[in-house]
Amino acid sequence: MVSIIVPSLNEEKTIEKLLKQLNSLSGEKELIVIDGGSNDNTIEIASEFCKVVKSKKGRANQMNKGAKIAEGNILWFVHSDSMVSENSLYEIESAINEGYIGGGFSLFFYDYDTKFMRFLSRTSNWRAKYLGLYFGDQGLFIRRDIFNEIEGYEEIDLMEDWDISKRMEKKGNMKLLDIKIGTSARRFKNGGQLRTLLLMHKIKILYVLGVSPSKLNKIYREAR
């Protein structure tokens, strides 16, 4: 069974559409929303579609809490502004049956179709395929036993996806699925395409150089 874990925080505008999509997927699954303290209608909306668990704020913490209560042997982490494909569960299970320990989906931006954003999605997919670095908007999935073995997500303020990808890579092969997952480009719309991309690259470089995730999170928040 695939346990689908959705961390949320004030996502009343997007969560209903995602949860309807996830509930319509064929295959054995469970759906859990882990809310980090929403003060809008996210919890009320999500409760109509699945189990909702309250948690302290922090995406890594929320996803770890979801994994603890999940019953599936495969964990799939999905951002609340995602758009999933109808064969997603089948493709995840096929990858695991082929011997992969996990992986992610091919990314596209569903609400901002420009040449720049198409280039960005293509290079993001290359990063995942050739460097083994999957970010959360690519719908990371992982065998539950591997997740437990590496002790889940590091509970840091930012870059938790980069961190877990590197630890997963040491445990086995990951697969970038050809099937797509959509994500919102709202940050790029609001902050400007090039400016936002440069900010993200700056954060990645600083992370590699050893700057703390809490400081990186502050840089990210102040730039929004």
Explained architecture:
The protein is an alpha/beta fold. Helix content is 46%, strand content 20%. The chain has ten helices and eight strands. The protein has helices at residues 15-24, 42-47, 59-69, 88-97, 115-131, 144-149, 160-169, 186-191, 193-208, 213-223, and strands spanning 2-8, 29-35, 51-54, 74-77, 83-84, 102-109, 141-143, 174-183. The protein has an eight-stranded mixed β-sheet. Helix 9 (193-208) packs antiparallel against helix 10. It is globular and about 40 Å long. The N and C termini lie far apart (38 Å).
Provide a short characterization of the protein structure.
With 224 residues, the chain is of the alpha/beta class. The protein is 46% helix and 20% strand.
Number of strands: 8
Q: Major β-sheet, in short?
A: 8 strands, mixed
Helix content: 40-55%
Shape: globular
Low-confidence stretches: none
- Strand arrangement within the widest β-sheet reads 3-2-1-4-7-6-8-5
Q: Beta fraction of the residues?
A: 15-25%
| Average pLDDT number | 95
First-last Cα distance: 38 Å
Structural class: alpha/beta
